[in-house]
Write the structure tokens for this entry.
Amino acid sequence: MGGIDPVVLIASLMVASTPILLAAIGELVVEKAGVLNLGVEGMMILGAICGFATAVETGSPALGFVAAAIAGAAFSMIFGLLTQYLLSNQVATGLALTLFGLGLSALIGQGYVGIKAPNTPRLDLPVLSDLPIVGPILFSHDAMLYVSLLIVAGVWLFLSRTRGGLILRAVGESHDAAHALGYKVIRIRLMAIAFGGACAGLGGAYLSLVRVPQWTEGMTAGAGWIALAIVVFASWRPWYALIGAYLFGGIVVLELNLQAAGVKVPVDLLAASPYLVTILVLVLMSRSKSRAALNAPADLGRSFHATA
Amino acid sequence: MTTLLSVEGLTKAYPGVVANDDVSFSIEPGEVHALLGENGAGKSTLVKMIYGLVRPDSGTMTLDGRAFVPSEPRAARASGVAMVFQHFSLFEALSVAENIALGMEDPPKMRDLSARIAEVSHAYGLPLDPARLVGTLSAGERQRVEIIRCLLQDPKLLIMDEPTSVLTPQEVEILFATLRKLRDEGTAILYISHKLEEIRALCDAATILRLGKVVASCDPREKSARELAEMMVGKVLHQTKSAGQEMGEAVLSVRNLSLPPATQFGTPLSDIAFEVRAGEVLGIGGVAGNGQDELLSALSGERKSGDHIFLHGQAISRLGPTQRRHIGILSGPEERLGHAAAPDMSLIENALLTGSVRENLAKNGFLNWPRTRAFAEKIIETFDVRTPSASSAARSLSGGNLQKFVIGREVLQRPEVLVVNQPTWGVDAAAAAAIRQALLNLAASGTAVVVISQDLDELMEISDTFAALNGGKLSAKVPAAGLTVDQIGLMLGGAHDMEVADDHAEEALHA
Amino acid sequence: MIRLEKRPNPSRLWTALTPVLAVLLTMIAGGILFAILGKDPFEAIRTIFWDPLFNEQFAAFSRPQLLVKAGPLILIAIGLSLGFRAGIWNIGAEGQYILGAVCGAAVGLAFYPSESPFIFPLMVIAGALGGWAWAMIPAVLKIKFGTNEILVSLMLVYVAEKLLASMALGALRNPEGGGFPGSRNLSQHPGTDNPELIAGTGLHWGVATAFIAVILAYILLNRHILGYQIKLAGQAPRAARFAGVNPNLLIAICLGLSGALAGLAGLFEVSGPAGQISIDFNSGYGFTAIIVAFLGRLHPVGILLAGLLMALTYIGGELAQFMLGLPAAAIQAFQGMLLFFLLGLDVLSNYRIRLTGFAAKGAS
């Protein structure tokens, strides 16, 4: 495996992980509020095309990311409206969001196949970027990658250190108790859902603007679902989501490098490895139930309807 | 002194029922005011309106001489109204301090709050560890969390909804001491209950509700329990205890039954042992959350165990619910909707839920619907279940009617052993009387009956023998006749760690 | 203010009416979507819903296609609906469909060039077993470890797609295919083909199996205790355990059965309409079947109708693509929209919508 440069590997690992990390941290907040949104894949791919199209039309990747976040949040509000006001089944509605998102994105993206996205500039930090090894690994990425890390830190701070975070966790723990104390369960959940949508949109745009960077139909290829698995892996703890996403990114990058290096493993087995690893991780996590149970929101996926 | 809260003509209607009809009453500062009424009389709706959870259709409220229109609980709290709920206001996976912070408008920093909680809770004889997860607390301790949460807000009016249902008699005494102390400090208390003796011991005034209307106001200290009961129910129901028949042989015996908790915050059962004889009613008392659910599921077969449960000497612990029904062990869980019955299914389908084996409702797996319908209709008729038809969904029935249905469903299957948990919880007085009578009649016909209940009056009324469940352990059983409240209380664990509120409690609160 | 009020009993009228209403609303919203795309909405709707059946020019070709497309959708959706009713979410039917096709085709190809009449039945069994085995992976993991079946079954779709590619390029590749990917054609070889049973109708063995599945599912759900237990477990899991239902057994049955049916659908497709194993053999039936299951209210007869309707949107969509240049993705979005409207309107069967007037406001 002489052809694999560890520095490049780690740097590309971070890029490969960022879409999933963004989607996962958003979904983590949604689930902490007691809502299970299985539409991550749909919101991601919609973010991917909206971000891509905006960046192409305006020439500004930054505007592309903004548009992707708005599109993801707006799209998630369909889910919010259906599950929070019309009390539809969250599993089914999340699936519908994914199916609809895949179709809608393909529709919007018709004119954008085969176009190259405007380049998202890398931050060039004086001194830091020039450091050996550490420089290329840590200090020469695009701004969005750092934003994703800031979001993780922000979510951690919010959930564990602020009153808003406490209220959000309380709503996810028992919506009836939260309602009895006078908290607006539905409003809080809608905000969480919108945040999750925005993060998923950003993750999708990172895929189409930085990681690939192109638009192809169905380009998320299960990344949204893997993000859902990462949330389980993290047992709803933000920093563990970061670890999970980066571990996962590592596997993807390693797999691509092994393919390129021509290692004698069937190509299709290698290509399937991210999905197989995800299953393996899910199994390992569900075996150690007791630890995860404490963090799992007790009212996850249940509809709330104030009876009195 | 001016009146603290006055309520004028409050009305609130829900589809099909007027929960509150032109309700008026008033509370003075420093008064303990009882709101008395049986289940479904409209007490909960009334206090929810005062606490801002429900908006009245019409009527006005005045607090401290000013119009009081709480649009949400936050507004009510800001005006000095606090409430201790019977259910639904704590978060199991959060700590005591976090739970308390959630119920306060402007909580101090977590570290300061924790210190205040420790201090105030000790001063009022309700010791609490602020760092513990609420899920690990007993029902009584959880109530302390609610009370401390209220006290830290320095309320003018404290609403307490059935606070003693989770306490042992000794704990009730201590709670009353705390409440009297609060009253002396000038806090008014609106005390909701259907327990007459408690109200006579504690309250200065009483408003009695029946079917949503105020039927009387009185000073409960001047009335007898019987007079209060008449006002509350309209007529006093007469319970006939069947003549003490001969008890037969031991039918069900349990030896050294231990089970780990099924859920994260469940109670483990440890070393349970008892015997029930044919024709005996064994009452198992205990405060909520001491292993009642776990005991029922071990007996019903929902949870299996080693060889610890025997029917006529035969080990049956490894049999599932269906097989146990086959040999005559039937049960009725506490939770009507979702456990004993499927809410969205019809009564016919719910009759099938436990009746398929003993009533031959299925052959080779194929269902006999006409027979099932006939069984459902037999239950409805025999137990006077009020419903438009057997095709109605279980959720459309009132608590009392559904409870008559689920208990009747088991009784009609002629069990050898019947185990019920909280058979009359949240049920109106008439239905409760009917259910108790059905259990007594069943015992008279030779069935061994185990009644697990948190209602000690109920157990004293129908049990031949009594045992107490405390922390997952069961006491030895004793004859029920002649047991005093004090003795029972001690069997239930006495005062646990509650202390009498000390004289400097108020200073701690305002420190 | 609009307020929801729970009905004491679920409304049968609305349960039956909501799918119809959802279809109408989808037509309206779809029309708007098509108008935004610059197409005449009325013409587009007519092309999708009317022309495949009644346009003289196209109906002869389109009508048989209706059953060809509806067959696998119904077959898969029937299986899924059982699990959905029990609260067991198999959303990996697409993968089970692929595995059924691959296993069935592998058996057929193993006997090539024999034309024995026993081969096709063996292929059917292999197809069902392939789908069953693929679905049992999430089932076993859920039973043993409590792993989430939604994520596992979905991940296995991607794995199945990779496997399909490897089969089309490797083990099952036609040795006489001149190096092109894809297997021998099964439908053009006697013994391995799944022919049209009645000429001009599109009815093949898969469609017949789908109809049988509808009938059996109806009997199961309405007359058999297993069907009752499935419904009970979905509505009130605790009551189901109280009634003596073994949740693990139910997981194995529901996932296994839906996998087997999806596998069958794959086998009938590969030996009939598709003809061969190819890289892009799977066309999303496994996912569309989820929509079909919900649109049919998880009821066998409803699924039959929903499957036909969804097949119509496929055929009509292709027609609209050909005639009006409507993009293929528009139909996918259109189908997704249908599911949204359905889920949103579902609230009407259990809740009443009340308009709270000014009187209440005045008092508050």
Summary: The two ends of chain A are 66 Å apart (CA to CA).
